[in-house]
Amino acid sequence: MKISADAYPITVEIPYVLSDVSNLSNPNSLIISGGTILQINWEAGVEKPVHLISTEKLQPLKGITETDINGQRYLKIGAAMTIADCLNNQLVQRNASILTEACEKIAAPAVRNRGTIGGNICSKIGDTISVLLVLQAQLSFFNGKHEYIIPLREWLVKPHPPSSELLTNIFIPIHVTNISTYSFFRKIGRRESFTAAIISVAGYLEFQDTIIKTARLSIGGGAHLPCRLTETEKELINGGETTDWKHLNKVIQADFSSYTDPFVTEEYRKQVAANLFIATIKDFLNRQRKE
Length: 291
Prior knowledge:
The chain has twelve helices and 13 strands. It has about 290 residues and is an alpha+beta fold. α11 (about 245-255) crosses α12. The radius of gyration is 20 Å and the shape is globular. Keywords: FAD, Flavoprotein, Oxidoreductase. GO terms for molecular function: FAD binding; oxidoreductase activity. InterPro entries: CO_DH_flav_C, CO_DH_flav_C_dom_sf, Diverse_Substr_Oxidored, FAD-bd_PCMH, FAD-bd_PCMH-like_sf, FAD-bd_PCMH_sub2, Mopterin_DH_FAD-bd.
């Protein structure tokens, strides 16, 4: 299907099978799903492409199911599923509740009903990414010939991912463990939900009593490239019951790069991130001691 008009000088192709995506693609093409982030960019003056390829009718990008890959159970989320789909899905709520927390804090309901999780990820600044990092998510891409799977963490640091490759699915490992777990997502913005976050943080902890055995922490939000805080994770595990919180604050701030813009300084963002992590983890440990 092709949509084109003189009054709207953009050609929109709507393929029905994955192989057609590569057949339709050219150097001027842009793949579009919900289009919410692209619309913001265009309103800000970013030049519009002359050729769009819509994922609207691609069934391999739809659905939320559980699946097995090499003996590991995964939650499989189609890249074209909307943020609202992920927020309201029982499989997501049961196996990745922290993802529903992040989805609930993305923009307004109208945007969540249109924007997709795939678009949120491909922007590289979406609020779901920090959560997916601590959940050890993997991504599948169609490169024109076949699909391949790559860890989200690895894909994020690729300098120039091929623009012609299509994100098809997100895979979140479903871990069955006897140890207790705790996960969290926090977002600080200049205005509730409707602007980019100053900073967002996510965490996943495995613990026994008040001893943290496993820690996965990440930051994102604003123009940050989301990343794991590996040194902070080590410090938190090694600290045991005698964590030096002042030292941990310094470790967190040194563990990621930030930036200054006309509204917020780099130093403020780093301090807010450290405060969010420490307040959330200390509150959790205090509640554990009372139980």
